[in-house]
Here is the input.
Amino acid sequence: MSRQVDRAQAYGIFSAALELAPSQRAAYVSQCCGQDDLLQQTVDELLAIANADPRTIGVLRGEVEPALEDRTGWECGRFRLLELLGAGGMGAVYRAERTDGVPQVVAVKLLRGEISDARTERFLAEARILARMEHPAIAHLIDVGIREGAGWIAMEFVRGPSITDYCATQRLDTTARIRLLLTIADAISVAHRNLVVHRDIKPSNVLVAAEGHPKLIDFGIATALTTPTDVVVSDAVEFSRVFTPHYAAPEQVKGEPATVVTDVFGLGALAYRLLTGIEPFAQARSALSYLHAVLHQDVAPPSEVAYEAGMHISIVRRLRGDLDCILLKALARDPAKRYASIRDFADDLAAFLACRPVSAHVPSAGYRLAKFVRRRAPVVSLVALLAASVLTGAAFYGLQARAVAQARNVALRRGEFLEELLKSADPSEGRRDVTVAELLTTATATAERKFASEPLIEASMLGVIAQTQADLGRYGEAMVANNRQLDLLRQQDASALEIGRALSVRGLLLRAQGQWLESERVLKQALPAVRAHGSPEDMCFLLNMLGAAQSRTGEEVAAEATYKEEIRIASGAGPALRDQLMLAYGALSLLVGGEFGRYTEAETYAHGAWDIAQALLPADHPDRLIMENAYARALINVDREAEAEPLFRDAANAEDRVLGADHHDTLVTDLGLVEDLIELKRSPEAIDLALPLAHRIDRVLGADNGYALTAWFDYGTAACEMHQDQAGLNALRHVEEGRLRLLPPEHRLIHSVRSGIGICLTHLRRYAEAEPLLLAAASGLERARGAEFRPTQSAFRALRDLYTAMNEPDKAASWAAKVRS
Amino acid sequence: MNDETGSSNLPKLLERWSRGDRSAFDALLTQLYDEIHAIAVRQLRWERRLTIRPTELVHELYLRMIGANAFQFQDRAHFLAMAARVTRQALVDEARRSRAEKRDGGTPVTLSDEHLGGLEAGFDALDVDALLTELHGFDTTVADVVSMRIFGGLSIDETAEALSLSVATVNRRWVTGKAWLAHELTRSL
Here is the structure.
């Protein structure tokens, strides 16, 4: 018809028109075409095609793919096709009804491609296998047949959204999503027992029917198995290289036979999508780039992907660790490295829900211990545990000071001991229910029994136990071990240095429990021996803890001297003790900033510590994170709050990942972030973080704890800021009571909290109560730390605001004059 | 063709090419041509396919090269662009041969691809080739984009990379070219 049309001209007008805004195209085209109607028509057709949704260009479908033709109205056996529901690589699915009047709606899948007479038997045989499968989560097969060479399968019609849509609209949490996955896993394993592999597990093949029952649909391309690992590829339907990006296993992409572990991958991919919101290899957008990715790259750990996608931190935390390991094992590129069966995969998911050990983990001492602790006790830290077993290897026992042979013996025995201890917790040995109590009782008993005739070795083991318990936050138990260790050392006339080292550990334990005075006493007791015989490292370790204790017992000036001695020793020891130098700088920064208000100096120390940390330590190292936290705190105090926030967040996130949410360091960094947000006047965010944090610290460290009180103080301050005055007041009163119990009455922290209470009372118009509190707090703080100290400044501002509210402008002005701009 | 020696040569040639050795390029094209042609012939004759999915051809080529090991895609987009070129040539040759063999016109070698949005039907490779040759005369870039997408299965991003164009430009050119091709092909159906 358009033979006379100048094709080059038509193309030229068409392509130029496409470059224009849609509204200008018509005018342009008619101007170019003039009176040439045929040309105009051709260009219009071209523009219409270009503007159409690609899927609606139905005219482009040729005749070679008959299955894709709309067969609505066809009768297949007892069923009449009513409506095309969807089409894919394997064929098209229709909603269908019974032709004999029995009210039954089914889904009929019309397979693409022709089934020759020779293959009919095979096709029907497979169908019989499918029909054998009975499971509430499998859409069951109703009938099967062949019409005009095309195979059809009638299945239960499932009304409901896909599992992804269902989870999203119901806002299901991780636990509920895993429960759905377990149901599906059960269905798949029933299929596997019937020697059927699904091969195409993906969200659109799992629908959720009424009342939240998931249903696996579309076993249409399932393949009958002769044995669980040996597949006879069906040739009833040709489907080579048809795969679903993001869900197809590497072996499918390669066109290799699918086995039960192919479904492990599929279910793993589905789980990944459900738990992270993102598909595996989401960055691979074309089929080819997926092929490349799935064959060459490892799947990104779910928790990382979720974190990067901005999922809520609680979800990221839930994924981190076990779920990461479980999903990565299910999605292993090498089929041999995946779970050997869907059952094994499901067992691990169920174990995760029940907080039992999962088998997916690389077996590690730390993991096993960590798992039990998470289940039974509040504090755990995998990395701390691993670090503990390394640390305890040499650091505290100065093995170099002993005969080399004996040192080797101790190390060897310790290795065997740990190995044996942790074996009892190995899930692969079928013991899934070992408790921490059991484990550590075993440990202590084993140590006693095995080393009864070798008290020094027993002491060494007790040191390991003490350290491990401490790293788990079980300070009471750690103290028991440490006590016995000290007894043994003293009985055996061990060297003063060795006793000094054990005392150093004792100081650490006491400090961790907030028993600052006792910690200081013990450390001072250890000091002479360590100073006389210890290495610079021993000395720095001790001084660092001593300084911390002194900072907390009103001996801040002595603490500064202690840290400076530590810095001197560490600097003198050269590069070997740069890490100690870093710790000393970090601590000194907190001291001179937090206690003395020498903020600029504090920033210099913190900067130094942070520089060393970045140069010396890997990104996730706990000490590096402490320095990041210290530097961020220093930045708040020099009015660089905005720079501090990303540092706090980075440190908090890494600590959460590395140490666990309940670890001391994580809690302290979270506290810093809250304080930063308060400084940044982002009180709503601060409150959201502070309240759960305060409860968490109460739970983990006990309520009468300096950190817990600080958290409640932060919460109270932020609440007052938000004019949630009564809640704020209650929190601050609680802090006041606690601090009065723990601290001397004139302590600056007591003045600080009273200043906060005064602010709250001012908001509540209880001026008469607020005034004396604020006056006493302001003078107390100024006396203790000077007028420039930030809490002092805050009290001055509070008095200015109080007198403004009381309508006493002269008094207000006199306090305003003391507020630095 | 000799599958064994063919595959084993490819990594070396690729490496030489990626180091800037122009002479390796022609050898590489010849080699890739043989590989692709062999795959296409096998699909058409032994597997009795009616329809060739060029993306599959390239996938299979890719997999063979992985099999030949030591294969790193430093420059994947350019490799794919090259694969698209040889695929087109191999298919056209095979279609001509098939047509010549059967005087009555025989079974056409048809193209299809799931990932081409709208162009998933079977089209005679010779028709497509002729239209692309004509289109090349109208608009070189559009013809290149369409050729890579259809014969190499390159994604929009990969096409953009291979042709050093922006993604937005490739998108526009692809819409233009696809519509043109669709119009011309369906007109003759």
